[in-house]
Design a protein that fits this description.
The chain has five helices and no strands. With 123 residues, the protein is an all-alpha fold. It has two domains: 30 residues; 89 residues, Cytochrome c-like domain (Cytochrome Bc1 Complex, Chain D, domain 2, Orthogonal Bundle). The protein is elongated and about 80 Å long. The protein starts with a helix and ends with a helix.
C-alpha cells in the first residue's frame, strides 16, 4: 500500500516537532552554572568565607580573621593572573600558607577558578 506524500510530510513534521520539544525540555532542566560568588560562598567548593572577610559584598556574612580581607584586590593584585595563580596554588608564593591549593588539588575546576578570580578581583 502506497502512502500519500501528505501523510509522509505530516509524520516528518510531527517527528521534528517532537524532537525539538524534547531537546528544549532537556535544556530547561539543566541546572544553572554557579556564579563566582556562589562558588566562593559554597563550603563544598571555594569556601572563601571560612577564612576571608569580604567587606565589599553585603551577602558575605562572616567575622573571621584567619586570612586577609578580600578588599582592594585590583590594587593588591594589579596583574589579575597573579591573583588567579594565588587561588590555583597559594603554596607557590608562600609554602607555609594554610590556603588550600584549589587548582593543584582539583578542588575547583579551571572554569570555577576563573569565576572566583573574576568575583574576588571585583572586591
Amino acid at each position: 500500500m502506497r502512502k500519500s506524500p501528505t501523510l509522509l510530510l505530516a509524520a516528518s513534521l510531527a517527528g521534528m516537532l517532537l524532537a525539538t520539544a524534547n531537546g528544549y525540555a532537556q535544556e530547561q532542566q539543566k541546572p544553572a552554572e554557579p556564579t563566582g560568588q556562589e562558588l566562593a560562598f559554597n563550603n563544598a567548593k571555594g569556601n572563601c568565607l571560612a577564612c576571608h572577610m569580604l567587606p565589599g559584598d553585603p551577602k558575605a556574612v562572616t567575622n573571621t580573621n584567619i586570612a586577609p580581607p578580600l578588599v582592594g584586590m585590583k590594587a593588591r593584585f594589579p596583574d589579575k593572573a597573579k591573583l588567579r595563580a594565588q587561588i590555583w596554588d597559594a603554596t607557590k608564593a608562600n609554602p607555609m600558607t594554610v590556603m588550600p591549593p584549589f587548582g593543584r588539588n582539583l578542588i575547583l575546576t579551571e572554569q570555577e577558578i576563573d569565576k572566583i578570580t573574576d568575583y574576588v578581583y571585583g572586591m
